[in-house]
Design goal:
Jelly Rolls; flat; Immunoglobulin-like; mainly beta; eight-stranded antiparallel β-sheet; 7 domains
Length: 979
């Protein structure tokens, strides 16, 4: 008999499938829910033709019954005289990628399995293990196929009844490859997708939930523990949302306020994040699949539904997030019924452009900023696994369902052009169609970060008496006073277009000579702002438009001049106060257009609805901000400006209004990829991008045949993506978009180049042969001399009988070589105007064969001229000469023999000298060995000053004719030469 028991209100709800054990945490309740086996000894239709027996529960029965065919035992120990009870068996269900692990524990209330255990898979014998073994790994399995495992205990009474468990591996198909141009340059940010779409979602009934805990990879918190950026996103399909139930929360320890997500019965979502309350409604089909995303950055929360910004609020950061719960797992929540898929947590803020890619395809372990990712594609079992760390998302009754959102299995190339598609569900086998895609974007915009004090300047230009000024802005949210555009002129005149926080919104402020007018709320997302300025009358009439709709007209004070002052540029994203910049703007700005007349409302509406024609009549100033890279802003209006605009710390983005795209062309356009249980990974699914246009060239060192490697080529004064460097032959290749206008600039440490830049305008065909010259030069100088005294070893250079000494320098790769014949007795030389590369320098000739041989043995010296000049001395060390300078006085003026008396002490003064062309170099270091027959000793010592004082005592004289004894002194210098 088997009974199930648990806490009322948790287990009695009859979930869609048994709750995973991970749903029950000791931190939540004190009781663990399990199955309890009360009895084992049972039989079917047991009877005896000759006798009948009746037993009562609680009656003490002890004894035995013996028969010809069977024996029966009654009493306490009778339960142990049978085959083992079924063990408690579990099998891995996706936790392991390369095997299925079966684990079991014997029933402690039954007989012991003294004979070990037998393991069966789908009824077929697999293995037998000893009684102490509790685990078995089955490697011979196919991912995606479920297996029923049985474990039976063995004892003297035979095999017991089986304990059973379902085990399987999750299909984890992997496709990898490279996307490169025809010049073999990497193509970053290309998306490779697999069709048809495969996978599952998680279905939650009214009594179902799910639960997960963070891991150590994020410091045991789902969200950052500091006030930094993050994004939570997922797909949802509501089936029932009565009374606006809580469908998901991420909370500190499951009790304090954190992030709470409610599904609205009206068709939308409400999020309580910190102190912010955000809501949004689905635009259509409220019961269909919808993508929901909440991002946090710099104190601002943004709610996106299906990739569109729906709400934005400021709030406090959520810093302690230790549990993630879904559905009924949230205690006391109103039932939510629906489907959940593609649950992701990023430690970065995603915007509309990022979310378009997130909604399009799956992510991988290479995705930047991704920390948790549950695809819900396991198909079987009671848990889903995080793609990055295999963190478990426990299902508390939820089941996998074939209904899923339109998300394609995909991978995105990194800066090296490499992509990896992971966790592709191939079922029993399927042939996918791999397709790459990437787009050319027609427009760009500038991103301003208020906290980082980003801004840009536009060169000074005047306004006519009748002017129309237009721009696009997308605010990051209310935050005090923020300046979009400003100008000062003639000392007392000023203009600011600003945003002023008003509750949860920004208001549009037009300020002229300190008079302020509020044109009303801005709203979320991109907005086209236009202002006509008419100063032909007594004052200045200003009319404002938002998205082509009239906001109002106001009469503002008159001003002097034409808004022109060369020392005061126009400022984007800030205003000047004295010499400082203040009131910085946070958000996006695209286009600054100035017309020399008052535009009609119809024309202003047309500019809001579609991209403007840059050749439009009356367009005097037009900064389209479509450069996309670099820090230069270019005017394409009719008014000639001799200067350009400049950005300061801003970033480029393709999230621009009226955006249009053109797809790249790839060869092949698609490739077939077959994945099945036997082939789970396919590599080298490569594609070639044939859409870009190559620009090639070289960087060489001036006046040499040497080419510079590892020189970076900047595009519009910024590193290209991927970064472009010259190869070992000095060659570079840049693959650019058709129609691109860029400035190329070589950079390498402190080197100078000519030309400093190279302009590429309206690129329509390949460009080759661009040459930059590295005009930076270095020099090598030094001496060729003798000894540490640097005495001359060259005599009468330049004469027929003089010394010939030649020094040679050459590059490591033999592209450069130069020689110098030294023309001075000091031996000084200098190589000037050398390329800044690694060189080898050596003395290759000297008239003295001994000196030449010494320099040949010494060999050349390798020097690195890439950063600084260098000095290299070539020193020849002559064999040292030992001289005894004191203590060897003759016996008398008439007897030059040196006599030492037995038993007396004497001191010798010893020196070492090197001679170069007759000049002596006294050594102050060296090694000296003294072999003294007079004292009967051999002594090794070190010369540490110019004279070594050696003390000894004379011993027994030589009794044999001619009665002489020797003192032999051998000296060697630190260079290794020996006397």
């Amino acid at each position: 008999m088997c009974l199930s028991f648990g806490l009322e209100g948790i287990w009695a709800q009859q979930p869609s499938q048994p709750w995973d054990p991970g749903c029950f945490s000791a931190a939540v309740q004190d009781t663990m829910v399990r199955s309890a086996f009360i009895n084992y000894g049972n039989g079917v239709r047991m009877k005896n033709t000759s006798r009948r027996m009746k037993l009562t529960v609680g009656q003490l029965v002890v004894g035995s019954a013996l028969g010809d065919d069977y024996n029966m035992e009654f009493g306490y120990w009778s339960g142990f005289l049978v085959a083992p009870f079924p063990p408690f068996v579990t099998a891995s269900q996706g936790e392991l990628l390369d095997r299925i692990q079966i684990s079991w524990g014997p029933n402690p209330l039954g007989p012991f399995a003294v004979g070990g255990f037998k393991i069966y898979r789908d009824g077929v014998y697999l293995a037998q293990v000893d009684k102490s073994t509790r685990n078995y790994n089955d490697f011979n399995v196919i991912a995606g196929r479920p297996y029923l495992y049985e474990v039976r205990g063995i004892n003297a009474y035979g095999e017991g009844s089986p304990g059973k468990a379902l085990g399987f591996q999750v299909p984890n198909g992997v496709v990898t490859g490279w996307v490169r141009t025809i010049n073999d340059s990497p193509v970053p940010d290309a998306l490779v997708t697999l069709m048809p779409m495969q996978g599952f979602s998680a279905y939650f009934g009214p009594h179902d939930g799910a639960y997960a805990e963070p891991d150590s990879s994020t410091n045991e918190n789902f969200l950052p523990t500091t006030d930094t950026d993050w994004t939570l996103c997922y797909w949802i399909k509501n089936t029932e949302a009565l009374n606006n139930p809580t469908m998901l929360d991420i909370t500190p320890n499951g009790v304090n306020q954190g992030l709470v997500v409610k599904s609205l019965n009206s068709g939308g979502v409400q999020m309580l994040a910190g102190t912010a309350n955000l809501t949004g409604s689905f635009d259509a089909n409220p019961n269909g699949w919808h993508h929901i995303s909440l991002s946090y950055s710099s104190g601002a929360y943004r709610l996106y539904l299906d990739g569109v910004l729906k709400d934005q609020k400021n709030g406090t950061a959520i810093l302690n997030t230790t549990s993630l719960r879904v559905g009924k797992r949230i205690s006391g929540s109103t039932p939510w019924v629906g489907r959940l898929d593609e649950l992701r947590i990023y430690h970065k803020s995603l915007n509309e452009l990022d979310l378009a890619e997130v909604m399009e395809g799956t992510a991988s372990t290479l995705t930047p900023g991704l920390k948790y990712y549950w695809k819900m594609d396991e198909e079987k079992g009671s848990k889903s696994f995080d793609l990055l760390q295999r963190n478990r998302f426990f299902f508390c009754g939820a089941i996998f369902d074939a209904d899923r959102p339109p998300v394609r299995t995909s991978g995105k190339t990194n800066e090296d052009g490499y992509y990896r598609i992971e966790s592709a569900n191939y079922g029993t086998g399927i042939t996918f169609l791999a397709k790459p895609e990437k787009f050319f974007y027609k427009h760009r915009a500038l991103k301003f970060n208020r906290q980082e004090m980003d801004y840009a300047t536009l060169p000074d230009f005047p306004l006519t008496s009748q002017t129309t000024l237009e721009t696009w802005i997308n605010s990051a949210g209310p935050d005090g006073i923020q300046t979009v555009l400003s100008k000062r002129w003639n000392g007392s005149n000023s203009f600011q277009l600003q945003l002023q926080a008003n509750g949860i919104n920004n208001h549009i402020i037009f300020k002229l000579n300190n008079q302020v007018h509020d044109f009303g709320p801005l709203g979320l997302g991109y907005h086209h702002l236009a202002f006509t300025i008419d100063s032909t009358g007594a004052g200045t009439q200003v009319t404002g438009y938002k998205n082509g709709t009239l906001l109002g007209t106001v009469m503002m004070p008159a001003y002097t001049g034409t808004w022109e002052e060369p020392a005061e540029p126009w400022v984007l994203g800030a205003r000047k106060s004295g010499t400082d910049f203040v009131d910085f703007y946070g958000g996006l700005i695209d286009e600054v257009a100035v017309y020399g007349n008052i535009l009609t409302p119809a024309l202003i509406s047309a500019h809001a609805a579609a991209s403007r024609d840059p050749q439009e009549a009356g367009l005097r100033i037009y900064f389209a901000m479509d450069e996309g890279t670099g820090s230069v802003l270019t005017n394409s209006g009719s008014l000639l400006l001799t200067q350009q605009g400049t950005t300061f710390q801003t970033e480029w983005t393709t999230m621009a209004p009226n955006q249009s795209t053109t797809p790249h062309e790839f060869a092949p356009s698609t490739r077939q990829v077959t994945l099945n249980p036997s082939v789970t990974s396919v590599d080298q699914v490569d594609f070639t991008d044939r859409s870009t246009i190559p620009v090639t060239g070289f960087v060489r060192y001036q006046n040499t045949d040497c080419f510079a490697k590892n020189v970076e080529i900047l595009v519009n004064n910024e590193s290209f993506v991927p970064r472009i460097f010259t190869d070992s032959t000095g060659k570079f290749i840049i693959d650019l978009e058709p129609g691109a206008t860029v400035t190329l600039k070589p950079v390498f440490e402190d080197h100078e180049f000519f030309p400093a830049t190279w302009q590429v305008t309206n690129l329509t065909s390949p460009i080759a042969g661009i040459v930059f010259n590295d005009i930076t030069t270095r020099k090598i100088s030094g001496f060729v001399a003798g000894g540490d005294c640097k005495l001359p070893i060259i005599s009468n250079p330049g004469t027929p009988s003089g010394t010939v000494c030649i020094v040679k320098v050459r590059s490591i790769d033999d592209c450069f070589e130069r020689i110098i014949e030294i023309d001075n007795i000091e031996g000084e030389y200098e190589f000037a105007n050398l390329p800044p590369i690694e060189m080898t320098i050596a003395v290759v000739e000297h008239s003295d064969p001994t000196i030449k041989t010494a320099f040949q043995v010494l060999g050349g010296k390798q020097v690195d001229l890439r950063k600084v000049d260098t000095i290299v001395d070539f020193i020849y060390y002559a064999p040292p000469q030992v001289e005894i300078v004191s203590g060897m006085d003759p016996y008398s003026p008439t007897c030059q023999t040196v006599v030492f008396e037995q038993g007396k002490s004497y001191t010798l003064g010893i020196s070492l000298k090197e001679y170069y062309l007759g000049e002596a170099c006294l050594l102050d270091t060296g090694n000296i060995r003294i072999i003294n027959e007079i004292s009967g000793e051999v002594k090794d010592t070190v010369l540490s000053s110019s004279i070594l004082f050696y003390k000894f005592r004379a011993k027994v004289p030589n009794p044999s004719p001619p009665f002489l004894q020797t003192i032999q002194i051998v000296g060697s210098s630190i260079s290794g030469t020996e006397s």
